[in-house]
Amino acid sequence: MLERAASFVTRAFEVLIVVCLAVMGVLVLGNVVLRYAFDSGIAISEELSRLLFVWLIFLGAVLASAKRIHIGFDGLQQAVGPRLRRVFKLFTGALILVGCVIFVVGGWRQVQVNLGNSYPVMGISYAWLYGVAVVFGVALVFPVCNNLMRAWRGDDEPLVEDLGGRIETLAERMGAEPAAPRAERRDDTP
């Protein structure tokens, strides 16, 4: 049940990120074409693109943490034994949870302060910009707690997946798959 919920939330984050990126791309490309070709533009393009970019970054950070594909520096953890590595994981997890609390509290205060301020063109409250900090802080708690529980149980799996290992695995998998048949090239083409 919990795995299905986690899978659903992960998929929802992926869809939101794709939607943010697609809308940003259309707005920015459309605005460039309209400016240079027709000497006009989309009024909300800059503000909405900026807002979506901020949401994309924070949602992507949560997703990367949940999938263990974020950037991590684990040189010290690899240099020590399993017991000390476990202590490091628990300590860093606790620090990240403190950071989550700071994001939630600070983000909520910024939302309250900026409820009356609005974007000049879009007309929506700046609370939408600062609200992402609350969403980020709450959402990041779940993968961090998952990592803490795994460390507490003694799971010695690294918190960050090795990028080189992922690339090698993907390359091996691609090499093992049969190649798609290629169309024969005709010699009579110029």
> Strand portion, in percent?
under 5%
Largest sheet: none
Mean pLDDT, all residues: 83
Distance between the termini: 61 Å
Number of helices: 6
Oligomer: single chain
Shape: globular
Topology:
Elements: H1 2-38, H2 45-67, H3 75-79, H4 82-113, H5 127-152, H6 163-176
Helix pairs in contact: 1-2, 2-5, 4-5
Description:
The chain is 72% helix and 0% strand. With 190 residues, it is mostly helical. The protein is globular. It starts with a helix and ends in a 14-residue tail after the last helix.
Structural descriptors:
190 residues; mainly alpha; 0% strand; 6 helices
Short description:
The protein is mainly alpha-helical and 190 residues long.
